[in-house]
């Protein structure tokens, strides 16, 4: 494990106790019991807590205290969890964070409701944050909460739209890079951008800083998803917890596939399309097919291309941090940007 | 059709064009297309639009204009629609408002997403309402929006909890009246109470009026659900669009069942429990069983009991309206209370 991964692990760990306590207190009033348990379950399944930590770190980096932003940070994590629960139902994914997914344990009806409950609780948490803001001006507090709600509601619409786009891509191999990037921005980037922007708002950052922090979040969100595509091919099974090339095996659209299809000659393109169709229909194509796809990706430099796209986004994201005054939190935000590429899982 | 039904039909009709236009403009930006269509579908299926009309009427009754409350009214209707879409998936109801339900047309994944999208759009609509409020004081506008968001988020949590309670009641015939009323308050009453309370807030009503309007909404919401239980037994098939006694046929818990079970002697109680279990397991018990249950309900006065409970709530609700100055809107709110009992479907 690199130093970056260790350092980021330590930083995320230093916030996780506060965040977990706040999540627990937010969800403790839900009744009946099985709805409460189903709602809490995934929040205790050992997620990285990257999104809420980003909110708190940005808030601190612009001069806010942790109380001003923690309820918003928790809201972001609850929305992330809500989307995971519903996505797992839609995608029929039976495992999540190494445990059976919510609908496998409680059934689909309770899982749908648990997602809806987390979604509602997230908004409640943001609204309640107005009494925690470190500002003497009540109008200013209301203004910050209102702006944050607006950012978060926008991200929620985008998450739904991104998931619909992603489902629409299934079995459709005529996706342009621009469309692919738009999908992953909505599905993954928008909530991370909302996490960083709302941290800036709640901490009292001005318009310029707030916009820069949105862009920082958007870029690391995009890089995060692209790096997921990349790790699926270059990591090892133990690190990512699934077989190498599993995206190809399932015929999934990734930036690597999009790039290879756009560059390949007709022969290679047809070979790759055939493999993807088998993967899409069977959910599991053969090792030979995966190797064949890999050699096509290598021939056209598509794996390196994906890495370069992610790297450029991380470099741009780090430049945006220059707007912040020097602080430990600013340093942590820079490390988290590096971590997006350094992580092995 | 009674005069009340005609008059209320006319009142609801007079707002429906404005509300429908606002819904359409709120949902027109959703992409991709199939997500937009699935999200809009039920809003165009001819619902009564009772909830949004209540919001606008209360807002007007406390002195607000329609612009101040219409985006909140629309949000309430979108939340109602979201809950119908998800409930239909959970309850495996394939028809809604005389049309195939959303998951029958687009499949469950898109239906889950359409519900989530409406939910997100509802919050966006409330947030956007701050620029429409008829008040010169920007802090006051923010305050109203913030209070409304708080009321609505609370109702959303309750809707989820109520649905979970309702699912928990399935096949459980040991439900107390208090538990039953708590369930229907959460599942139906909370959103109607949020509709009326948020109308009062957005229109600029003071604390006392706002609380009274919440209580008015809560009471007519409870009466509405109890009257549904009642109409299932005393209405005719043509009016309610389903066979008389279909709740018994499905073994559903209603206030009438709860009341009869609490009063019946052991013999009648066992007969009724047997019928309910058959209904619950088969989803459709025989005409003879329904008639037998009906005669038990009549023997213990449980049908009349339900009507009396609903009537008392409507009388109390109407008394609460006395706090309002006389106006056409106040008169309409009184008529809507009567309509809850007069309606045949």
| SSE class of chain A | mainly alpha
Which chains have the largest interface? A-B, 44 and 44 residues
Oligomeric nature of the chains: homodimer
Radius of gyration of chain A: 20 Å
In N-to-C order, the SSE pattern of chain A is HHHHEEHHHHHHHHHHHH
User: Sheet bearing the most strands of chain A, described?
Assistant: 2 strands, antiparallel
Compact description:
Two copies of one chain form a homodimer. Chain A has 345 residues and is mostly helical.
Report on this structure.
The structure is a homodimer of 345-residue chains. By secondary structure, chain A is mostly helical. The first copy, chain A, has a two-stranded antiparallel sheet. Chain A contains 16 helices and 2 strands. The model of chain A has no long low-confidence stretch (mean pLDDT 94). Chains A and B meet through helix 4, helix 6 and helix 7 of A and helix 4, helix 6 and helix 7 of B.
Blueprint (SSEs and pairs):
The structure is a homodimer.
Chain A: H1 3-27, H2 33-41, H3 50-61, H4 66-90, E1 95-96, E2 99-100, H5 102-106, H6 108-128, H7 138-169, H8 177-202, H9 207-234, H10 237-240, H11 246-249, H12 255-263, H13 266-282, H14 287-299, H15 302-320, H16 328-342
Antiparallel strand pairs in A: 1-2
Helix pairs in contact in A: 1-3, 1-4, 1-16, 2-6, 3-4, 3-8, 3-16, 4-6, 4-7, 4-8, 7-8, 8-9, 9-15, 12-13, 12-15, 13-14, 15-16
Question: Features of this protein?
Answer:
homodimer; 345 residues; mainly alpha; two-stranded antiparallel sheet; 16 helices; 2 strands; globular
